[in-house]
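Q&A log
Question type: sequence-to-structure
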Amino acid sequence: MAQGIVAAGADATAAVHGSRAKGRDMAQVGTTAVLALVPEAEPLLKVAADADPRVVRPGVPAHAALLYPWRHADQVDARGLERLRAALPDGPVRLRLSSVEQRDGFVAVAVPELQAAASALRAAYPGSVPYGGRFGQDPPVHLTVALGADADTAQAVADRAAALLPITAEVSALYVVALTDTGWRGLAELPLSAIS
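Response status: OK
Response body:
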């Protein structure tokens, strides 16, 4: 299970795609997400933390959010998890992280290989509009490297992250996580198994 998904204290409320620096779009306790963990991308987060520890989410591993928010943790049940599983791709997904994006203090790496899976999950739950609809109904999948950085820090992080690319990885499972008052906790692992 996603044991590493724990963010402590005040940082927990902004741990997945919230803006701690600007104090907006903060996740609430009970918020859930469907994530692809990408441990191979941890060096990108280290680059950001080395530049300014405030622009990373402590305790949250490198990941791409495919569905955020999903539903309240109290509503996660076997039927809902089965509906997610039915929308998943058959077999692991190979990633090639190769493109850094930067805008307004936000630095990310595109993860287009997970777009079909994200779109399928979002279609299965059309009421769970990603990021509250700020980026449309089906925004591009990305791995956040830095959030809320000043312009100079964002540029430095983007440049250093680009120097580490490409990174290849394979996603063999997705994880449903929920925000608790002590951080993000894994609720379920959704293996990407080939159908036999």
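Response note: The mean pLDDT is 86.
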